[in-house]
Structure formats: structure tokens, C-alpha cells
Specification:
74% of the residues lie in helices and 2% in strands. By secondary structure, it is mainly alpha-helical. Helix 1 (27-54) runs antiparallel to helix 5 (117-144), helix 6 (154-182) crosses helix 14 (401-429) and helix 13 (368-394) packs antiparallel against helix 14. InterPro entries: Dipep/tripep_permease, MFS_trans_sf, MFS_Transporters, POT_fam, PTR2_symporter_CS.
Length: 498
């Protein structure tokens, strides 16, 4: 991909003005490759996670517990994107924060590679912390490459960046999944650490092409604020250590003592954060109005991700127990299903980008609200499709692999309508003082969706049942229709943002 750099004329002040990356600032190539390798490590480990949790050679848990752990882990990853944005805004700046994040993620995967159940959850925690530090900030740096919200290349740039995510996500299950399932689980986790190491090296070598804004701390902490932050952080950390030490010593500790607080936080914190930004009296009327509109996008995204992220847990565990997992008589590892979505993204993202550009030139491009509504309804349709293989399995038969491919296909079309557009509109609608933090808020929508799935699983709800799947599908379609019906009101609240 990096070899695609060509001579092109771009506007002054954009990093790498002598060259471009598919018509975009050269710094996009650095962020594209960094994110590609980071996603290789993340999605490779994620493809193995639910299978390792239920495998006799792994932790040998039941499917409901595995789904709960998987959902809580994803919820935590995205929950930590918010403090990750805060670290960049107040302490390190986006560029330094991403460098630290890469090192922490690599250490986490190396910890997962240790053949010990005791270190496994510590490794998950480190990967979650590092991912939280990286997520919001690398996307913010993509936004820094463009001349403000009205730069016509902006949406296309985020779509190309999204392709980078999916190049890594496509290769990861084929490499890491195969090694983990067929050779050794922990060797697969070690291969994920290698991927993150390559991503970190790529980032450090290419930082000179990034915008100078990416190295700026927008609102540095004052000395009193630093002291107060250290005291509060230390107090909360000490309280947590003491609380869990008491629970552990009394012998009443179970995983639910850890998972329930995280899932509740995943639902409560997003509401608290958005309310805090809305109450900020320093925001002008236009910024307040955009934040009101943003709530619609946030709720729509939360419902979307609640269903979408079950592709790596509910659908994966269904495939492990109730699908044929063969094509033309040739069998393949269950983790390979996780490559279906990214390969579809790579095939269709350029098509979507071209369609939006062509429609924009004619003044007919659908609004962001319409794209969101359509994506939400499509993810609901995907679970209506899921009812077919569930019915086949209930009849005592193995469902064909193509049923699962069809589900991933419908979800991918919905994702292309919602996710890259959501990243772009977040950078457009963010008040200047909350630039990185609002990107963290966007990822909190994933937290809210996954936290809901986690709470259901902790409560013992089997998500692989016809009734639950039909209920989730109906919820998404109805929510999408509601967003579409109120599209005029939301567009009015967005003001001049399109």
C-alpha cells in the first residue's frame, strides 16, 4: 500500500505536501500501516478468544460464560478509549499517547502467550488498556491531516483508513487463528505480539509525515491539576486493590465480581460523559446543538454494535458447535469466519467511497442520518437471516457455512454505512476543547452495546436462541426506522455539519 504514493498537488500546510496517498496527505499512509498492524494483533487475538475460553485445551468454560467474558473484554477496550483521549488532551498529546499504547499492547500479547491461566486475564487487561490509549487518538490524527470539517477528501480519507483496519483484520484470523487453533493457543497470542511490534515500528518511523497538531497537548494540566489527578487516581486504585483483596481472601470471589462492575460502568459512564459535555457552559449554542444531534448517532451506534460484535462471540460459538465449517468438502478453522467481514470491507469500501463521491457531485449523496438509519436496519436484517441456521440446528442438523457468510455480508453492508461515517462525523461535530475526548465518546457507543450483551450473558441468557435473536433483530430495525423518521430534526440540530 505504501508504494502507492504518487506526486500530487495538495493544499499548503498539509503534512507531506510533496506526495499523496491515493490523493490524500502522505501521513495517512503512516496511520494506515500502523493501524493495519495493530488490528492484525487485536483481531487475531479476538478470533481466538471465545474459542480458547470454551476449548478443552484452553480454559474449558461454557458458552454463556465465554460470551460474557468476550463481551466484557470488548466493552472494556472501548470504555478505556475515553480516558485514552483524556491522556492525549491533557498530558501527552495524540502522537506520544499512540506510541505508549503500542508498547503496552505488545506487552499484553506477550503476557497472553505465557502458558498460564493466571496471567491470561492480566494479558487481556494490558491489551485493553493499550487499545484504549490508541483508538481515539489515531483516528483523531487522521482528522488532523485535513483542512477542517469541510475538506471534501475527509470522508474518503476515513474510508481508506478503515480499509487499513480491515487489511490487518483479514490476515489475522488466517495467520494467528490457524496457529492458535491447529498448533498452540499461546503461540497464536505470541504471533499477535509480533504484529503489534511491527505496527509500533512503522509508527515511529513515519511520524515525520503527521500533522504538527498531532504532537500538541490541547489543554495541558496545570501543576495543581496534576497533583489532584495523581491523588484521586491513587485513591481509587488503592480502594480497588483493598476491595478485591478482601473478596479474594474471604473466598467469595468469582469472575462476576469483576465483570458486573465493568458492564454497569459501560452503560453508566457514556451517559455521564455526554451529560457532562452538554452541561459545559463554555460551549456556544451551535456546539450545544451539535452535541444534542450527536446523541442520536450515539444511541443508533450502540444498538448497532450490540448486534454486530456478536459476530465474534455468538456467531463464532454457533459455528464451533452447530455449523459444517466446510467448503466443497474442505474443512477450515472456525476462526477463519472472522476474515469474511474484513475481506468484504476491502472489496466494498472503495465502491461505497466512489458512490458517495459521485452522488456528492450531483448533490444527491444521502445525509449522515440516512446512512446511519440504513446501517442500523441492515444489522437487524442480518439477525433475521440468523434465524434460518438456528432453525436448522434446532432440527438436529449442521448449518451450512454459507449461512454464516450471508450474515456477515449483510452486517458488512450496514457497517460501511455507519462506522466510517460515524468516525468522520465525530471529528466534524466535536467541540474544539473535546477533540480527542469526543472520539472516545464515539467508542463508548461500542462499550454500551457490548456491555448490554455482557449483562445478558452474565444473567445466564443464551444468545443463541431463536427468541433472543428475533428480539434483537426487531429492536435494530425499529430503531433504524425511528432515526429515519426523525432525520429532519437531527439534521437541523447538526447545523452546518454535513
Amino acid at each position: 500500500m505504501a508504494s502507492s504514493l504518487t506526486k500530487d498537488s495538495v493544499q499548503p500546510g498539509i503534512p507531506g505536501s510533496e506526495k499523496s496517498f491515493f490523493g490524500h496527505p502522505r501521513g495517512l499512509a503512516t496511520l494506515f500501516m500502523t493501524e493495519m498492524w495493530e488490528r492484525f494483533s487485536y483481531y487475531g487475538m479476538r478470533a481466538l478468544l471465545p474459542l480458547y475460553l470454551v476449548a478443552p485445551g484452553g480454559l474449558h468454560m461454557n458458552a454463556t460464560t465465554a460470551t460474557a467474558i468476550y463481551s466484557v473484554y470488548l466493552s472494556l477496550v472501548y470504555l478505556l478509549a475515553m480516558p485514552g483521549g483524556w491522556v492525549a488532551d491533557r498530558i501527552l498529546g495524540p502522537r506520544k499517547t499512540v506510541a505508549v499504547a503500542g508498547a503496552v499492547i505488545m506487552l499484553g500479547h506477550l503476557t497472553l502467550a505465557l502458558p498460564s491461566a493466571g496471567t491470561f486475564f492480566a494479558g487481556l487487561g494490558l491489551v485493553a488498556i493499550g487499545s484504549g490509549l490508541l483508538k481515539a487518538n489515531i483516528s483523531t490524527m487522521v482528522g488532523h491531516l485535513y483542512n477542517g470539517p469541510d475538506d471534501p477528501r475527509r470522508d474518503g480519507g476515513f474510508t481508506l483508513f478503515y480499509v487499513g483496519i480491515n487489511v490487518g483484520a483479514f490476515a489475522a484470523p488466517l495467520a494467528i487463528g490457524t496457529v492458535g487453533e491447529n498448533v498452540n493457543w499461546h503461540l497464536g497470542f505470541a504471533l499477535a505480539a509480533v504484529g503489534m511490534g511491527l505496527g509500533l515500528a512503522q509508527f515511529l518511523l513515519g511520524t515525520r509525515h503527521l500533522s504538527p497538531r498531532s504532537d500538541v497537548v490541547p489543554m495541558p494540566l496545570s501543576a495543581p491539576e496534576k497533583s489532584s489527578t495523581l491523588r484521586k487516581t491513587g485513591a481509587w486504585a488503592a480502594a480497588a486493590v483493598i476491595f478485591y483483596a478482601i473478596i479474594g481472601l474471604t473466598g467469595v470471589y468469582t469472575l462476576n465480581w469483576l465483570m458486573v462492575p465493568i458492564t454497569v460502568a459501560g452503560l453508566v459512564i457514556p451517559v455521564f460523559v455526554i451529560a457532562r459535555i452538554k452541561r459545559d457552559r463554555s460551549l456556544n449554542r451551535a456546539e450545544q446543538s451539535r452535541m444534542t444531534a450527536y446523541i442520536w448517532f450515539f444511541v443508533a451506534a450502540a444498538v448497532f454494535w450490540m448486534i454486530y460484535d456478536q459476530g465474534g462471540s455468538t456467531l463464532s460459538l454457533f459455528a464451533d458447535s452447530s455449523a459444517k465449517n466446510t467448503v466443497g468438502g474442505w474443512g477450515f478453522p472456525v476462526s477463519w469466519y472472522q476474515s469474511v467481514n474484513p475481506v468484504l470491507i476491502m472489496a466494498f469500501a472503495p465502491v461505497f467511497a466512489a458512490i458517495w463521491l459521485a452522488l456528492n457531485r450531483r448533490g444527491k449523496e444521502p445525509s449522515t442520518v440516512v446512512k446511519f438509519a440504513s446501517g442500523l436496519m441492515l444489522v437487524g436484517v442480518s439477525f433475521f437471516v440468523f434465524l434460518a441456521p438456528l432453525g436448522i440446528a434446532d432440527g438436529g442438523h449442521k448449518a451450512a457455512a454459507l449461512w454464516l457468510v450471508a450474515i456477515y455480508f449483510v452486517q458488512t453492508m450496514g457497517e460501511l454505512l455507519l462506522s466510517p461515517v460515524g468516525l468522520s462525523v465525530t471529528t466534524k461535530m466535536a467541540p474544539a476543547k473535546y477533540a480527542s475526548q469526543l472520539m472516545g465518546v464515539w467508542f463508548l457507543a461500542v462499550t454500551a452495546g457490548d456491555a448490554t450483551t455482557g449483562l445478558l450473558s452474565i444473567a445466564g441468557v443464551d444468545l443463541n436462541t431463536t427468541g433472543i435473536v428475533a428480539l434483537e433483530a426487531t429492536l435494530a430495525v425499529v430503531a433504524g426506522a425511528a432515526v429515519w423518521l426523525y432525520r429532519g430534526k437531527v439534521k437541523q440540530l447538526m447545523g452546518d455539519v454535513r
